[in-house]
Amino acid sequence: MKRHAWLSYLILFSIFFPIGFWTGSQISPQNQTNGFLVKFKMISSNAAEINYPSLSSISQSNSYKSKTELAQTNLLILFIDDLNAPQPKLTSAWLLIHPDDSARLIFLPIFQEDTAPEDLLSSFQLDGKRLSKRFVHAIEKRKLLWHGFIVIDRQAQAQIAEKVKPSLSPEALASFAILNAVCQSLPNQPQTLVEIKRLIPAHLMANFDLESSLALWQLRLSSHPYLQCEFPTTSP
To answer: Using one digit for the tens of pLDDT, what is the confidence trace for 101-123?
Structure first.
């Protein structure tokens, strides 16, 4: 009798253990995808090794969603003086949030030109498409989650402003003015993204395929010319 009971337990264990293991692997954050084969990770000094989503590639099916999944894409937008300088200087930093399946773009300032924190300024350094560990740590201390980053220098800012809002004077080329002007103008001028692509890589770069991302955004805006631009913690 005991032998039969033991065999029953063994059979049940053999059936349900693989099922439980497979289920656990599917809901694990390390095994989640977001449209493309993308692994969401917290801030990492090995940022260039992560397969980041392009901002326009969010197309999430219900079968991939779970309670632990982040239903948005976050990008760092880093404004610098000169991308071609031996040691570019950081002038402003923002977090761009794009909730899934929406036309919302939410811009949150990490710091603007007149409020530069010393730890971010002193630790900022680019090594190809990789941020320095010190800078990543300084960002991490602010409890921010991001999936990729974009770097824009002053030459790019000036050329972008000339396309989207020629009335902006060189003195008014602050990061807030640039982001607001671009976001507001794109629904009516999606072709602007073609001009922006020409700034890559001399004055504009990212640690993901930025050219493909901009091309997809242009296609999307040509079909559905609408963006909801939000600056919830910033006033002009």
So the answer is: 789 999 999 999 988 899 999 99
Express each pLDDT in 180-229 by its tens digit.
999 999 999 888 898 899 999 999 999 999 999 999 889 989 888 999 99
What domains, with CATH codes, occur in the chain?
A: 32-230 (3.40.630)
Listed residue (67, 66, 69) closest to 53, CA to CA: 69
What tokens were used for 65? 């969603």
pTM over 0.85: no
Nearest to 145 by CA among 67, 52, 58, 230: 52
The answer to whether 220 touches 56, Cβ cutoff 8 Å, is yes
C-alpha dihedral sign at 46, 128, 218, 158: positive
First to last CA, the chain: 80
- Contact indicator for 141, 43 with CB cutoff of 8 Å: no
